[in-house]
Amino acid sequence: MKKYDLCVIGGGPSGYAAAMRALDFNKNVLLIEKEKLGGAGLYNGALSSKTFWELSKDVESARSKVKKYMNNKFDVSFKDIVRDVKEAIVNRKEILEGHVDKLHELHDDIFDYILGTGKLKSKNEIIITKSDGSTEEVYADYIILATGSRPRKLSHIPVDEKIIVTSDGIENFENFPQSIVIMGAGVIGCEWATIFSNFGYTKVNIIDKGDRVLPVEDEDLTDKIEENMIARGVNVHRNSQLVSMQVKDGKVEYELQYKDGHKEVFTVEKALVSVGRVANVEGLGLQEVGVELLENGTIKNDDSQTTVPNIYAVGDLTADIALVNVGEMEGRHAVEKIFGKKEESLDYRNISTIMFLNPETAGVGINEQEAQKRKISYRVVTIDYSVIPRAIAMKNTNGFFKIIVTNDSEMKILGMRAIGVHASSAIQAVALLIHMDQGIKALAELIHPHPSIIEGIQECLRVLKGNSILKPEVFGDKLRCRVCDENGCYTEWSWLEK
Q1: What residue segments make up the domains of the chain, in order of their start?
Q2: Which of 81, 109, 118, 231 could join 32 in a cystine, given CB atoms 3.0 to 4.6 angstroms apart?
Q3: Burial group, residue 470, by CB count within 10 angstroms (0-12, 13-18, 19+)
Q4: DSSP symbol at 300
Q5: CA 460 to CA 382: how far, in whole Å?
Q6: Is 164-275's fold the same as 359-495's?
Q7: Average pLDDT rounded to a whole number, residues 107-123
Q8: Stated pTM of the model
């Protein structure tokens, strides 16, 4: 029986990152992947959907320019879009597979990669069923579980991945559907609503059980997102519950019941079910070796360590945030705990997130909802893109920055939300300050490039310091700062003595 220092089961973002980090410690590593190196993050997740989003933005921009300057019709086909998406996937796939092949060639004494499935026989023994059907047993001092997740399906909805699909089935469409209903108004649902509305061929409907999409975000942010979706023809079924969904005569018929009790029936060409994801824990032999699960189906863990001390779980298998960058961080962290004797726990405060909407939306740290929930007194400053020179030059002033800091002399940054062009790039300096537990002084006094979107961040921080170029008293809601006390009551900051 071959012995390893570490066996990683799952070759998605978190497992791949864990295996690579273990090699840095010169450890003997086995990486097992069931089918596709790169996992859902590559094939049916972040890379594929964001490539769809980038292409949809290009199409929307090209169509508007052709219409404005040439007065011509602009068309694309869904098959061409899917082809470009698959090209992006292949490019990334070749990088990952080529990397693994070369590593195995250069370091065959310490690195093995097997295509197959792994099942725990004991806390140290793994039964591997290879892709050719053969089996092998190996021993590992430590094991990291990183088998990812899959889209959640509901028993009363007949998902066939052709007419009623999850995110895994989008590429099965032969053409842009004339109409689609999206069940779920979370990030994934809103992203696909944005993508299809950007392309301009599909009437999009979203089923939202609440009174606004993305309920975990602040109202000013979701109001802007909804405003932009509605402007592109998206219909939001607010305060509605799905009664039934079925395929009739090749189309989707769904019935909704609203909060006031009345019901309505609608018919569309396609449906997308976007109601979260389920951890892939089946077939791993967890219960047999004592690895405990939580009620939500994820693996119980303490800073990635499971109830069996030498077995760790990372990525979508844990109850933490299911994002590629978080999974990679967790995979690396688990290895550093095992072999680097790292003592500090993972810090999730400075995780940067992007929502691929219209416009692009990004965030780091906590928002106002969370600050008020924790009864934190804070200052919050916002600046509209309409007063940022770079946004004016780009003729793209649809957006704003919002920064939340502690209500004291240090003004340490608690969080930031950005919605608009370059949003995802703009938050990085703020993310660093959160990680360093620093105040705003250094970033406020830094010389920012001109013209750039991030000058808006600098002006926000100058407002907090009381020395802004644009005065909030003049610009009203375009540049505003307020104080919120522990009870959620606001006071205008510009009225206070600085």
Answers
A1: 2-43+84-151+278-339, 164-275, 359-495
A2: 118
A3: middle
A4: P
A5: 7
A6: no
A7: 94
A8: 0.91
